[in-house]
Amino acid sequence: MAYIGKSTPISVEDTVSKSAGGTFGGDVGVTGTLTATSFSGSGLGLSDIIFDTTPQLGGNLDANTKNITNIGTVTSSGYTATSSGSGTVDGLIITNSDTANNGLSIGVDSSENAFIWNGSNTELRFATNNSQKMVIDENGNVGIGVSPSNPGWARNLHVHGAGNGGGLQLTDNTSGSGNNDGLSIASYQGNSYFINRENAFMVFSTNDTERMRIDSNGNVLVGMLTNSITSTGIGLVKDGVSHMYSGVTGTNATLMLGRGGSDGNVLSFNRSGTTFGSIGGGTSSGELVISTNSGIQYISQKLTGDTDGIQYSNNGTYHLGPWLAKNDTVDLGRSNSGWRNLYLTGGIQFDARSNKLDDYEEGTWTPTIKGYAQGNPHSETYSLQNGNYTKVGNLVTAHFYVTLSNEGNIASGSGAYSFISSLPFTHAGSTAGSGVMWGWHSLNTGVSHVGCDMSSTSTLAWITQASGTSATQTGYLHTSQITNTTSFRGTLIYKTNS
Fold first, then answer.
1. Low-confidence winner among 46-50, 124-128, 332-336, 419-423 (lowest mean pLDDT)
2. 452 forms bridges with which residues in the sheet?
3. How far apart are CA 248 and CA 156, in angstroms?
4. How does pLDDT run across 309-345, given as a tens digit for each residue?
5. Which pLDDT does position 324 carry in this prediction?
6. pLDDT value at residue 12
7. How far is 12 from 250, CA to CA, in rounded Å?
8. Which are the contacts of 486, defined by CB distance < 8 A and separation ≥ 6?
9. Per 3-state DSSP, what percentage of the chain is helix, strand, and coil (rounded to 5)?
10. 6-10, 64-68, 458-462, 489-493: segment of lowest average pLDDT
């Protein structure tokens, strides 16, 4: 039973007809249904409606006008609800004996903004199925599935999920709103997930400017919008074969790798979990060291005299060439793409059986014809003097073609011997050299053979002749055989110490 204006009922069951317009002068206890088309008058006569712990309003309270205002305070089981219709706010305030007049406000302001307002410095909690699902704490932090924690932000949204983790899903009309649509941000079993569930890119920006994107094919593009090697930026691309490229131009580096001040590897190469090589800095300034896991190193550095070079090292021994378990396994160049020039300050060692080849030279020289102990100055003249040579190690091969235009004083000396002189290198002397004349012309008398003999440490080749049919008849060519138009063509082969 409800009591209006009094805490105990007055058991009066009178009826006042609508046409009579009568008025009850006292308190009214209602055991049935109270029906009114409207309430009027100061205070509306409803200044205080009290419900017992066990409500006794057995019927319905209808307000056909749909407008009941300023009904005062409604109390039930220690909770009090007060309507507010003053000024610009219409709402319901719910308080108890602890909250005083702060409590919870539910209402609408003059701009038609609806609000739920906790006036106390406490949490605002939301529940379904008789279980708390979300809470806003007194500092403005929001917890979904948990009382919110805050690692230090001014405000924090904390989503907690047991079992399958916690996540945030963002969708729009284009993506759709299903479980597999839009963007998911989640934490599951300690792992973090950023998942674009659409066939589209993900963009990462700073300073309101795009810095990086992951396109729909999984390519990571930094500073570029499309997967193109001509674009400015860096692309990490997986298109069957993973690779990285940069579209930078000018003097800028495509990729720069670095480490701290200590020596060590900057880049390591790995195959099937095993490192097989590395690139790093050496112990000397400017060194670039390329190493293999067998301890072999290729070192590029500044050498003595500021000359750049490449060193090959195995246990401290530096040289250019293969250090392998067996010989004859590595080529320098190929048959169709050889090296152009090879400059050495030492020599070439072919194998343990051979001597070191430490010199090779080609050039020209000017051959002359001289007489033994010829007087000075030499007065002979020439119409032709051609010579060229090849020197391999200490072996000289010299070709010549020389023709006189006047014999001059060739025969002025006390001796009677003739020479080819002015050889490009001095004869070693310990081993005789030899020469072949494959042409001669305009001698005083005919001979069957002309050659050269070399046995002294000089630049002279003795001219020999043979008139008979055997080598025992060979002798030196006398200067009397030389005429004003004598000519010799031949080849000399000898050793030199030069």
1. 46-50
2. 435, 463
3. 41
4. 455 555 555 555 444 444 565 566 778 888 888 777 7
5. 40
6. 45
7. 104
8. 369, 403, 404, 407, 440, 441, 442, 443
9. 5, 45, 55
10. 64-68
Kindly state the DSSP code that residue 42 receives in the 8-state scheme: G
Cα gap 282→287, rounded to integer Å: 5
Residue 328 identity (one-letter amino acid): D
Q: Provide the edge-to-edge strand list for the sheet that holds 183-188.
A: 166-170, 183-188, 191-196
Task: Map tokens 């031949």 to a residue.
Answer: 490
How far apart are alpha carbons 303 and 300 in whole angstroms?
Answer: 9
- 291 - beta bridge partners? 278, 297
Residues 165 and 185: their CA atoms lie apart, in Å, by 11
* CB-neighbour burial class of residue 61 (10 A; exposed 0-12, middle 13-18, buried 19+): middle
What's the one-letter identity of residue 32?
G
User: What Rg do the C-alpha atoms of the chain give, in angstroms?
Assistant: 57
Residue 394, number of CB atoms within 10 A of its CB: 16
Burial 66-84 (b: 16+ CB within 10 A, else e): eeeeebeebbeeeebbbbe
E strand intervals along 215-273: 220-222, 234-238, 242-246, 264-271
Q: b/e string for 105-128 if b means 16 or more Cβ within 10 A?
A: bebeeeeeeeeeebeeeebeeeee
Task: Give how far Cα 257 sits from Cα of 6, 263, 308, Å.
Answer: 88, 14, 22
- pLDDT at residue 260, as a whole number: 72
First to last CA, the chain: 137
User: Tokens for 260?
Assistant: 């701290």
Q: Which of 8, 58, 5 is nearest to 31 (CA)?
A: 58
Contact, 28 vs 11, CB < 8 A?
no
Q: What is residue 49's predicted lDDT score, i.e. its pLDDT?
A: 44
CB 362 within 8 A of CB 389: yes
Cα angle, residue 441 at apex, residues 417 and 496 outer, rounded to 5°: 50
* Helix, strand, or coil (residue 490): strand
